[in-house]
Amino acid sequence: MSHSATHHPDGVTLAVRAKPRASKSRVLGEREGALEVALAAPPVDGEANAELIRTLADHFGVARSQVQIAAGKSGKNKVVRLIGANLGDIERRLTEQPR
User: Domain holding 39: CATH number?
Assistant: First the structure.
């Protein structure tokens, strides 16, 4: 079972640790109870948050409109909600090899 993903009445909540200014945006995997995500964007003017939404939507196969940053918009540690997502589906994608 995944430690970073939990059921929420609106979908699934994820603990995320953003790593801005990476060479490529990608999901790195879970570490210490959070999903680490490398972002090829600086943490300036919301660019990293927008890139995080794009990266998570692509990784989990959901629309960008379904990805919401619920907490931590200005920090590296965030809580992200995947609206309408199924916990079982998200956990399966979390156990897949990183792309």
Answer: 3.30.1200.10
